[in-house]
Specification:
6-stranded antiparallel sheet, 20 helices, 25 strands
Length: about 700
Amino acid sequence: MVNLDERAGIPQAALAVLPILLAPMVLGSAILIVAPGAATGLTAVIAATVAVAWYLLGGAISMAHLARAMSARRALRAIRNEVAAAPEPIWLCDAQGQVLYQNSAALDGFGDLEGQRIISLMSRLRADAQGQVDDLTSRALRLGHVEMELVNGDTLTLSCLPDAPLQIWAYQRPGMAPDPHVLALSLDDDEPADDFDVLPVALLRLTAEGYICRANASARQLMEGMLRPDDSGQNLAELLEGPGRAMGDWLADMCAGRAVNRTEMLRLRHPDSRNGDLRDRHFQLTVAPDPAAPEQLIAVLSDASALKTLEAQFVQSQKMQAIGQLAGGVAHDFNNLLTAISGHCDLLMLRRDKGDPDFADLDQISQNANRAAALVGQLLAFSRKQTLKLETLDLRDTLADLTHLLNRLVGERVGLTITYDPALCAIRADKRQLEQVIMNLVVNARDAMPEGGNILVRTENVQLDAPLLRDRVSLPAGNYVCIKVTDQGCGIAPDHLNKIFEPFFTTKRTGEGTGLGLSTAYGIVKQTGGFIFCDSEVGKGTSFSMYFPAHERPAAHLAPAARTMPRVVPQVKAGPKASVLLVEDEAPVRAFASRALKLKGYDVLEAGSGEAALKLLESRDRPIDIFVTDVVMPGLDGPSWVREAHKHLPGAKVIFMSGYTEDIFVDGKVPVPGAMFLAKPFTLNELTQMVETQLATPEGGSRLH
């Protein structure tokens, strides 16, 4: 009886009755073995044989077919109304392919096929009708739903499941969107009659005015209980902000087929949406007409908060990059102007003493030029395009040097406390820029406490055993030195916290701040390789934390790093004055620098470009002692023409001048060995002192860079 149920169409339940029918046969055989020829045993064997034969040959099969027919009729009654309303032709068949029911569309298009086998329909469509029916049936039993494309572009579909009592055949014309597979799924009594609630997608049924007719379980979970449990006329506009216009207008256009954009990004509208985690929640809503109810809409809702966050970060990074590029361009041109202004002002002041009536005016011009230069420096610091001079620093010494200045900055009403970790590690940073960052943070802390208070500056070693994720930034595991500046002031509002490092953003009143302090601090810390974070609570205070990678402490015998501008001017050895080749594309800067050097007795040659400088060297017999050149120029830049000139004059000293060096200087290193760098804007004394210092440096000795 192996696979007898499959071969004969007998279910497993029917085969289970066979042992009962065989029991009299076994009993009668036992009696005949004990008493051969016994009438009781012979009667039992004959009766059992007849019963089993009848059961196998007709009874069980009839019972199985009867059970299947009854199951098919029950399934037919369950979906008959839905099939009758379908616009496409549909035939419901039993497991053998006999048509039990056809809707009016099938009757009008193909005639009455009830009581016939589905092969009669297939014979009108394909030549090999039986082969096509067998192939579709076997594939549908495996896959649940199969399609067959016809010559005229129409499609014949078959949906059935192994345990389902009916086959559903549907004839689809282009433009129709029936779902007979859903009908097949609904034939199982254990499955829900409506899959709207069990689909793992947030779905809403809406009216053209935006009222929610129905929401499935996924939508309720996504909206976190803000949907009413009874679907009692709640409008979607009460929950989500519309797409730039009234949501009812957009949905009405969608329902009428006038809308082009079927997907919109909507923002959560909720009493708690202005604070907490709900303030940045966005949802993407995709709407389409409901095929079952043309006057309604089906909406698919998905959480797009992460997408909007990434979009905001991308826009912010583009804005910051644009400001950085603007800062670099402004620095290059503006520093040239400031160099010419302050330089010619110095030339005028050389011819006047402090008692001259014009001296005070010239001094004001010089001071304001220096203030303008500091502003450009802040922009470069924010955009991380300044040239840092990194050195190994012991923060205890740095803060000790700053203590007196910081106490003067905070005033008498504000206390300042500085604490150190006894085993504090060293860091690599630009000392002058780091001092500026600390002063900016302390001044901001002072301004946040107009009634007085205490500022705590604390340094400590921090060891991260695992990466620290904070404010969308990941700090790698390792050792850090943390500098914390904490105040007891008014604090920062939560909606301002994510903007405080933006340039020109300030919470102070107009005229009280430029909005560049924190952005400058951010740029310096990031360019140094560190991280800066802010914690604040309104009414309790603010704490800024800066993390710098830890380094070994510098040895005590090492001298401090050399500065670009020397404090002590070396004496130039006696002898004839040196010859200087000055290369600068800006005529006002070149005129000032030439006059300044000539006043010091140097023999000055001028060129407006790198190409002109190389031609001048070719036509000159006497060698040049030092090149003073701009870095960024049209044509050959400063390093390029200097390297070419060094092929013929390898002993010439070099000084580079620039106000914007990102594209030339990499990691703070001068591109020509032994060269020095003079940042624009510079004064007359700074220029002449650097020339004297460079000329006094012996060959092969150390160079400042």
